[in-house]
């Protein structure tokens, strides 16, 4: 068991975090899906209340930085009106990632209805407001894109009519049809809270409990079993949808959606009446594009900073906030990482996370650390 001496304090839209550059708010977006109207609300809030940009997180959520001390109530009002804050009590518990473009391109099951039912069930249960902000739910449509993201409770489609429950990467032996699968996740979340209480723990994650996956499974009347799920690379670029239309998936360098990029996304969703999907890889999927729109939208988004080449160095680089946004940081890691990309001097090949201190905030699993020391960077630390 990993000992925790305090409750999880992940920020939300109401429970904000005071950073060096002002208050930071994190808005949960279950499944990463935003309507055009919701995207407009977030973009306008970034301009009116924060520093003008939206930051994408490794869980497909968004952050607003640089909020004044009196801004959170106004932000909460706007989010509530847009349907982005259905329950203040549950705001930090709604951590749900889902397969990218599910129901549009690839996969065995369209998991969008599963995510919607899960979110509704979560906010309807007062007890689930106690879920830690680090507790992660994954809903994989069978292609294996989000299954490997170290979720605490998850579903993975194993057939067009069946999804299997996963607990911290372990199979549970439990399956359900798509229409009932969300209930498995709700039961698993309650079982985690019950087991945590039984162990007298403040654990944030299932694996932090003593024999966590097995004991949570036992509370569900089952046991852990092997479950092999092939992994899929995150999509980047242009993908043809099942209906003949096209989706564009663009990488957002360092996860920062600028005002210019937001303006393009808002215009596109308004013109098409469509939506966007934020991904756990700090990219944005723009679906449902008629073929004649694709080149113009790709050009506009590329001009605004998005990257559509999977071979780009930006596909390998993430970073924490760094200076000046975080007082604990020893360097302006974002500027240093951007300079290394521009000059072709990244210190290592492959995924790497530039961090300003040992907390390594936002570090994706499998990344090599590029850790600021105050006298340069230490590679592979920790």
From TrEMBL:
Cross-referenced Pfam families: NIR_SIR_ferr
InterPro entries given in the database record: Cbl_synth_CobG-like, NIR_SIR_4Fe-4S, NiRdtase/SiRdtase_haem-b_fer, Nit/Sulf_reduc_fer-like_dom_sf, NO2/SO3_Rdtase_4Fe4S_sf
Keyword Coiled coil appears in the UniProt entry: no
Entry superkingdom: Bacteria
Domain Nitrite/Sulfite reductase ferredoxin-like intervals: 23-81, 240-303
Molecular function in Gene Ontology: 4 iron, 4 sulfur cluster binding; metal ion binding; oxidoreductase activity
UniProt keyword annotations, A-Z: 4Fe-4S, Heme, Iron, Iron-sulfur, Metal-binding, Oxidoreductase
Name of protein: Precorrin-3B synthase
């Amino acid at each position: 068991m990993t000992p925790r001496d305090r409750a999880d304090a992940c920020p939300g839209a109401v429970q904000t975090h005071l950073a060096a550059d002002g208050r930071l708010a994190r808005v949960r977006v279950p499944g990463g899906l935003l309507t055009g109207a919701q995207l407009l609300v977030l973009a306008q809030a970034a301009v009116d209340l924060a520093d003008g940009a939206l930051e994408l997180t490794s869980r497909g959520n968004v952050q607003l930085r640089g909020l004044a001390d009196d801004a959170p109530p106004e932000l909460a009002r706007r989010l509530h009106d847009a349907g982005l804050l259905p329950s203040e009590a549950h705001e930090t518990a709604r951590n749900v990632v889902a397969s990218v473009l599910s129901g549009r391109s690839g996969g065995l099951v369209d998991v969008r209805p599963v995510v919607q039912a899960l979110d509704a069930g979560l906010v309807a249960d007062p007890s689930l407001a106690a879920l830690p902000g680090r507790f992660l739910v994954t809903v994989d449509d069978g292609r294996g894109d989000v299954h490997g993201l170290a979720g605490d409770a998850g579903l993975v489609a194993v057939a067009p009519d069946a999804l299997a429950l996963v607990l911290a990467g372990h199979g549970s032996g439990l399956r359900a049809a798509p229409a009932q699968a969300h209930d498995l996740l709700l039961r698993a979340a309650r079982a985690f809270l019950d087991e945590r209480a039984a162990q007298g723990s403040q654990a944030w994650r299932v694996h932090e409990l003593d024999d966590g996956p097995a004991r949570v499974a036992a509370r569900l009347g089952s046991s852990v079993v092997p479950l092999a799920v092939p992994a899929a690379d995150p999509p980047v670029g242009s993908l043809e949808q099942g209906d003949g239309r096209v989706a564009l998936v663009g990488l957002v360098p360092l996860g920062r959606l600028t005002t210019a990029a937001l303006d393009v996304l808002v215009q596109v969703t308004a013109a098409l009446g469509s939506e966007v999907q934020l991904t756990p890889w700090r990219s944005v999927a723009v679906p449902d594009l008629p073929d004649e729109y694709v080149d113009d939208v790709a050009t506009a988004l590329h001009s605004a900073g998005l990257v559509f080449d999977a071979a780009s160095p930006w596909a390998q680089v993430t970073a924490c906030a760094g200076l000046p946004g975080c007082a604990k940081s020893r360097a302006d890691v974002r500027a240093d990482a951007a300079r290394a990309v521009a000059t072709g001097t990244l210190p290592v090949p492959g995924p790497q996370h530039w961090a300003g201190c040992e907390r390594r905030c936002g570090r994706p699993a499998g990344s090599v650390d590029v850790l600021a020391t105050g006298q340069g960077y230490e590679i592979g630390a920790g």
